[in-house]
Each structure stands twice: as C-alpha cells, then as structure tokens.
C-alpha cells in the first residue's frame, strides 16, 4: 500500500489500537507480503477478491490503491470484480466497483 499508508496507520495508532496495528504490521505487511511464494501482483489479486467477498469497503479501497501500486491495471481490477460478481454475488461485485471507482477518482486515474 506504500510507505505513506503504513506511516499514517502507525501514526494513528492509540494505546488501545496499538496491539492490533502491531499484529497487522508484523504478520500481514511483513511476514506474509514478503514471502517468496507469490509476487505482490498475485497477492493483490487474491486480496481484492477475498476482501470484496468479505464486504470490507475500507480495506478494499486500501487494497485497490495497493494493487495499482503493485502494477495491476484498472482493466485487471475490473476483471477481478466481474469474477467476484459471478462467484460471490452481484451486490458484492457492484460494491467493489463503486469502491474502486472512488479510489481511481482520488488517484486521478
């Protein structure tokens, strides 16, 4: 998702949220994302599908931004969300498209 995203997340952590932020930082962003078995593009593709199905719009927006940073195109993201619509339901696909469009607008793409 980029250094700015990570720095902002760490900077917003409170005494209450710090244990969760530490868990996410160490296990998600470091241990899993840096494993050699999949490249970052592949991990982004998987995450977009899974987070869409889980209906987590805030996380989805962050991962759309990360997917772009990891080299995915808008067209590839479009295909992922069409796949989501067929296998997880049209409402999940529609929400994913809406959330991605917000990110594209923010990013000027």
From TrEMBL:
Ranges annotated as spanning the membrane: none
Name of the protein this chain belongs to: 4-carboxymuconolactone decarboxylase
Originating species: Rhizobium leguminosarum bv. trifolii
Domain Carboxymuconolactone decarboxylase-like span(s) in chain numbering: 20-100
Native organism taxonomy: Bacteria, Pseudomonadati, Pseudomonadota, Alphaproteobacteria, Hyphomicrobiales
SUPFAM superfamilies listed in its UniProt record: AhpD-like (SSF69118)
InterPro entries with a match to the protein in the record: 4CMD/NDH-1_regulator (IPR052512), AhpD-like (IPR029032), CMD-like (IPR003779)
GO MF annotation terms: peroxiredoxin activity
